Amino acid sequence: MKQGFKVPHTLILLLGMMLVAFIATWIVPQGFFDTVTAENGRQMVVPGTFTLSEGRSYLTPWDFLTAIPRALAAAQDVIFFVFIVGGVLSIARATGTIDALIGRMLERFGHKPNLLIFMVVFCFAMASGAIGTAGEYIPFVLILVALCKAMRLDAMTAVGMIVAGYGIGYGVSAFNPFTVLIAQQIAGVPVYSGLEWRLAIFVPFVLIGFHHVWSYGKKVLADPNQSLTRDLPCPLSGSVQGDYPKLNRRHQLILLGFVAALVTAVWGIATKGWYLYELGGVFIAWGMFTTVVGKIAVDVAADRFIEGVKDLATTAMLIGVARGIALILEDGQILHSLVYGMSLPLSYLGAELASVGMLVIQTILNLFIPSGSGQAYVTMPLMAPVGDLIGVTRQVAVLAYQFGDGFSNMIIPTNAVLMGIIGMAGVPYHLWFRFCLPLLAKLMLAAAIVLVLAVTFGYGEDVQPKTVEQSEQS
Fold first, then answer.
1. Which of 113, 164, 201, 391 has a CA positioned 20 to 30 A from the CA of residue 49?
2. What ranges in 132-194 are assigned the alpha helix state H?
3. Would you give per-residue pLDDT tens digits along the chain (474 residues)?
4. Do 230 and 154 touch, CB atoms closer than 8 A?
């Protein structure tokens, strides 16, 4: 390997991508679709209304510079949630609960790392597929990193099992209210329709994710020098030890509070529409509970909380700058142009190839529109009628959207949750990209095969589609 080349810091890579997006706003034609307001207040594009802007406005270097603090403000919900979780977990570590939990899990899984990896991937995929959890996994990052270190694995293995579960769960979801249900409503097919097909492919895709993470983990176990993160410090190096305290009743009570916080969070998401602000409040309550039960002096708890927050300052900057890439494209008024330009070639392909083309388009667009629901409102009003013209059922169009949005969530740097997870684990983005790209390739190949089979076997033909206008009226 040639010496002298060094991969830039993740922050520099993200700023470089912002610069590329900034230059693209000078080159790509500016245009827009007409939009209508859906019942939930979100803006949805109207197919067939794309027009180029008459005059062209250019972003200036000053716009580029101010986009960075604006992006930090736009990503504040994720940033503050990461800060809160880091601070509260630092308090929990001070009670010895984290070390005791790791010791107990080592007793259970120490000789069965493959079982641990499968359980995490499967359970996280189930949760993401059912209720759309994503940022809720952030509290598990530091715990799983320390556990993997103690099992002679590494931080990459910990991040791999979390993100693989999260991305696959979104990609093959049967019920996700933030992606599947919204996309089906926009496409004009009954919600929850096509459920059997999505349930049938869930386990095979989970096994692909498990196999990739475990194959890497086995290499690290056999030879620690195979670890991609071997030269990086462990975020919980002080907790990775040979002797762990016993899990006493005080620790158990604190962990019971953690479970109660998670249950409350899931209940709030499912019934009250909660997200990161409310979840942050739940974890603050758990931090207070931990301070009291753990008999920690309030000044000590405050110091530990601030230490936990300080440790995540870099992560916060990465999350904010990542948001800036999409912000630049929005300011430059080229998002709709990109969507329109990518959708045009589909009309020249056969149904099978067009379904795979939809997958590719949705994957690329997720870089620019990292919000799953936001992507549905921009792309599905276009993909559904295009599918009608070329013989791709609307159910297949929804499936292509799911695959493209969910799987690419695992690798796109504009995904704030991903940047938060790898930042907390201390994994640079370029190393994560190196680990995740082969997994994404496997999942995309499997997704392409599923889409071709779905077209071949007429998936969704039994569903009578409604037009977008009818969908709005209903």
1. 391
2. 138-150, 155-171, 180-187
3. 445 556 677 888 889 888 998 999 999 999 888 887 766 566 677 777 889 888 788 899 999 999 999 989 988 888 888 899 889 988 988 998 877 887 888 778 878 899 999 999 999 999 888 878 787 788 888 889 988 988 889 999 999 999 999 999 999 998 887 788 888 888 888 878 888 899 999 999 999 999 999 999 999 999 999 999 887 776 654 444 556 678 889 999 999 998 898 889 878 877 887 878 888 899 999 999 999 999 999 999 999 999 988 888 888 888 888 888 888 988 888 888 888 888 888 878 888 999 999 999 999 988 888 778 888 888 888 888 888 878 889 899 999 999 999 999 999 988 888 988 998 898 999 999 999 999 999 999 999 999 999 999 999 887 634 444 444 444
4. yes
Q: Are 222 and 80 in contact (CB under 8 A)?
A: no
- 313-331 and 335-343 are packed helices; what angle lies between their axes, rounded to 10 degrees? 70
**How far apart are alpha carbons 165 and 175 in whole angstroms?**
15
H or E segment and range at residue 79? helix 76-94
Distance CA 108, CA 151 (A): 11
Query: How many residues does the structure list for the chain?
Result: 474
Which residues are CB-neighbours of 141 under 8 A, at least 6 positions away?
Answer: 158, 159, 162, 421, 424, 425
Q: How far apart are CA 359 and CA 447, in angstroms?
A: 8
3-state SS class at 244: coil
Q: Which residues contact 234 (CB under 8 A, 6 or more apart)?
A: 145, 146, 149, 155, 240, 426
List alpha helices for 223-248, DSSP H. Answer: none
In whole angstroms, what is the distance from residue 261 CA to residue 290 CA? 12
* DSSP-derived 3-state class of residue 242: coil
d(CA 435, CA 411): 10
- What DSSP assignment string belongs to 382-414? HHHHHHHHHT--HHHHHHHHHHHHHHHTTT-TT
CA-only gyration radius of the chain, Å:
23
What is the C-alpha to C-alpha distance for residues 151 and 132, in angstroms, rounded to an integer? 30
